[in-house]
TrEMBL record:
Protein's UniProt keywords contain Disulfide bond: yes
Identification of the protein by name: Basic blue protein
Residue ranges constituting the Phytocyanin domain according to the UniProt record: 30-125
Gene3D superfamilies, alphabetized: Cupredoxins - blue copper proteins
Length: 125
């Protein structure tokens, strides 16, 4: 009976440590407003310069949904300002997107917007 209590206590302590580690990791994810105070608009392609991003960080895209959108694209879509088949399109005007490890590419698919610098490439480590 005593051995059973010890095992239950060890499991409880291990579970508590796992929860603390998960909270610690989540607490250190940063949130960035893309484009700063001006939001997601033209000529934001240089906005990521000088910033350090980590996987799990959140990018917030603020914009008018009647005027813009956000499309998560691959490198080819970013370079050519095209929307690949199956690309995720965000349209809320207050989109929150979690970065994955590696390159993350985002554009606006409204005609001419990507070509006018409404695209960003973010590398998350």
């Amino acid at each position: 009976m005593v051995q059973g209590r010890g095992s239950a206590m060890a499991v409880a302590v291990a579970a508590m440590l796992c929860m603390m580690l998960l909270r610690f990791d989540m607490a250190h994810a940063a949130t960035y407003s893309v484009g700063g105070p001006g939001g997601w608009t033209f000529n934001v392609s240089g906005w990521p310069k000088g910033k350090s991003f980590k996987a799990g960080d959140i990018l917030v895209f603020n914009y008018s949904p009647a005027a813009h959108n956000v499309v998560a694209v691959n490198r080819a879509g970013y370079s050519s300002c095209s929307t690949p088949r199956g690309a995720k399109v965000y349209t809320s005007g207050k989109d929150r997107i979690k970065l994955v490890k590696g390159q993350n590419f985002f554009t606006c698919s409204f005609t001419g917007h990507c070509q006018s610098g409404m695209k960003i490439a973010v590398n998350a480590v």
